[in-house]
Amino acid sequence: MFILKRQDVEISSIQHPKRKQNIPILTYQGQNFRLISVFSDHQQEEAKAFWRELTDHRGKACVLLEETDRYSIWGKVSLEQLKAQEGSDSAVLTYTKACILVLQAVYIDVEDLLGGRQAGLFEKEITNLFEKWQFPQADSAKAVKHWLNVDPLANASVPAWEEHHLITLLQELYRLGKEYFGNTNFAQGVRDILQDMPVNEQKQFINWLNQSALGQLWQ
User: Fold this and answer.
1) 169 and 204 share a domain?
2) How far is the C-alpha of 88 from the C-alpha of 121, rounded, in Å?
3) Whether residue 98 is found in the same domain as residue 74
4) pLDDT, tens digit, for every residue of 62-106?
């Protein structure tokens, strides 16, 4: 649809129908959009490519917002449907567990292949990432260490992250992995990382990945 500037739009929030957190909403010319994905300021081409993929090839009604320190993609949404949202929490819960497993696998690879010092630096990078993008329940080094070590499949308590948090995590984790390893081999074999998850949840997560450009990164 459109590429917009911050002054063109109004950004507000509504209460999540089932969680104690807010959902950011962008309003433009009487239409409402929910955050889909976030890119940092040096990822202009990636952001535009993903936006074109959604609008031109998938027929989704989306806007690309250019801000001083980031690019963000928002998908058209009905506030009535959003407020009455039911059932999708279970899917996001599955995606969150899978993303934590992927994060832990990359962290373990850094520690095993590059050593404890690099693992410590990687942990700081993840802490900064969670702080920058305001991930709920991950706002301290102690909290990040917890999510790097907890078994998300055995622990009923997982962070209350939205889809846009998970997309940002996988995008930035891919970028960090390339910097640390110098290649993208770490992003292959996602199914092996998820082998302890129920098969139906594995399929659900892989299908979700393949609905966006993330499926081209994590294989």
Assistant:
1) yes
2) 35
3) no
4) 899 998 888 988 888 877 666 555 445 678 889 999 999 999 999
Choose among 126, 73, 131, 124: nearest CA to 100: 126
- Euclidean distance between CA atoms 146 and 104, whole angstroms: 11
- Cβ contact 79:195 at 8 Å: no
Domain containing residue 63:
2-83
Q: Quick one: CA dihedral 91, 187, 104, 16, positive or negative? A: negative
Taking a C-beta distance cutoff of 8 angstroms, is the pair 71, 47 a contact?
yes
Residues 20 and 108 in one domain: no
For 62, which DSSP code? E
Considering the domain architecture, whether residues 66 and 105 belong to the same structural domain is answered as no
pTM over 0.70? The answer is yes
Kindly calculate the radius of gyration of the chain based on its CA atoms and give it in whole angstroms. 17
Q: What angle do CA 149, 20, 36 make, to 5 degrees?
A: 75
User: Around Cβ 42, how many Cβ atoms within 10 Å?
Assistant: 10
Residue 118, token pair as written in the block: 């690099």
- As a dihedral over the C-alpha atoms of residue 67, residue 70, residue 71, residue 76, rounded to 10 degrees, the angle is -80
Q: Which residue's structure tokens are 């994590």?
A: 218
Cα–Cα distance list, 88 to 94, 145, 204 (Å): 10, 28, 12
* 59 backbone φψ class: left, alpha, beta (φ>0; ψ -120 to 50): left
Quick one: 68 exposed, middle or buried, by C-beta within 10 A (0-12, 13-18, 19+)? exposed
